[in-house]
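Bench log, entry 3. Co-assembly request; chain sequences pasted below exactly as received.
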Amino acid sequence: MNRSVALLMLCGLLLAAAAVGFLRYIEPRPTPLQGFTAPFVFGKFNVPADNPLTQEGVQLGRRLFYDKRLSGDNSVSCSTCHIQQLAFTDGKARAVGISGNPLAFNSMSLANLLWGAQRFFWDGRAATLEEQALIPIQGADEMAQDLNELIGELKADEAYPDLFRRAYGKISAENIARALASFERTLVSADSRYDQYLRGEVKLTAEEELGRKLFMAHPDVKVSLRGANCIDCHSQFLTSGFSTGFDGFSNNGLDTEEMLRPGLQLVTGQLADRGRLKAPTLRNIALTAPYMHDGRFTTLEQVLDHYNEGIRYSETLSPLIMEADNQPRDTISMRFSLNLNEEEKHAIIAFLHTLTDRRFITEEKFSNPFEAGD
Amino acid sequence: MDRKLLKVLVAIALLLIGAWIYVYQTSQPGVVSLRFDTVVGEEPLALNETRYPNPGGAGLFRVRDFQFYLSNIVLHGKKKDYRVPDSYHLARFDNASGRYQLDLPGVPPDAYSAITFSIGIDDAANSSIASVGDLDPNSRMAWNWEVGYKFVLFEGALLDGDTVQPLVYHVGFSENRKILRFDLPESFAPGSPEPLSFTVDVMALFTGKVTIDMAALPNVKFDRADARSIAENYGEMVSLATTTGDAQ
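Structure output for the full assembly:
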């Protein structure tokens, strides 16, 4: 009698232990990402609590990023429009996906996404990188993929079920988005000449230094301070837009009232936000031509010319752009110019070239894993 | 007799428990909430509406952005002063409620008679690139690391006839930090559900001590004398409204 009770109890214990073991097996326990660092001057950043950076998540995200099966006809991947050698842009004025119809917007660089405006796309319509990641996959002109079909394809693959199990548990749209967002968050560009200068490792040339000073200054004629007011929208260390609220969105005078895109107004519904678009990071800007949300400028010289003498007025035009002038402003004419000279424009372009990070565009960890063979 | 004694004992026990609860509650740190509402003269500030008269000249102006740094909050108590840690707070009003509310947790119990805080930040923080509190060298409130922070940011436009004149008042420099002190009502205590309610008069930026004609001075940035004028004015823009709990 006693013996059978004891036996029953032992069986129970064993079953419980097996159950715990099994649960542990199916419950993923990914490894927190080791060695993820960023420069002190970039400041605070937030990784969402429900998608911490893990080795398994980042590895999976990298594979998905480069996998053409993410598109409906298996012809394009995220990396088609986000090419590492071009700092994850595509060299086109406006992105082209499956349909061959150019999109409304220029492909954005994917660098230092943990900092700067924490809304994504030029008009800020995605509130998180996770939300962002699934939109191009399903876009008819982009990757034209049905998420259920994609999940089916991934389940049938020999590698993905195990990779998903280790990172997140199961294959789902949510976990695809998590993995892609995780990989994108690791794309840190922090070894440009400008970074080396900030770390005290190199000196800038006289021309670059003049450009840096102009970049970092809002002009003030009254105290003879010359400036290009870049810093009014592009923060001093990150060179991205600002992260607080919608501070990272501006109307930079590309179009007149009639031609203005809704921009941030799509998100907020506020007329005052009409035409405000995301100020992108300027990291690697020398590699990411053509420029602006619609790729209208092919060179940095054209970009400088726009800010110097091409500003068009509309109701929501940034008051800082209207007001910035290196000569006493004619307040009646409604013409806006920075009034920089040629030497100053060249210097700013020289400074912009110091933002190129060769390590970023050659870093093995960011490259195509199918070609690297790991 | 026994029953009477029991009643007395129960009464004493209840009293003790009540007293203990009272003492316990009043000895716990509590939250102090500060609330800031923007007004223009008498009416609440409406952003992006061209409706406010240029105080020193012709035209109407609109406000597109208005924000400022509050820092170094100190509550002056009977026992000791409570200094809020990492006290750098960016007051901004472009939210649904149109107001800035700041909740300070963990304020020790004491009889507080006054509160002081600064508009602007101290020199040490102004010459540092550390992200403490709401200080962020990569934000729009930072000029660059060689200059420091804007303490008060006002951007908008002045409209007069067909002309639109941009208004840019970016006022900083360590000498323009203004320390304000307000006496607190006797009813004030940490943990009170009623916030301390302040009003911020945006018009005071241009009318406080020096009346400003926006057409003649449409921007203030790095000119020390101009910055000082606006700073003198913003030193007068905040007032403590009577709290609802202390209504007269």
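Confidence is low (pLDDT under 50) at residues 244-248 of chain B. The longest helix of chain B spans residues 2-26.
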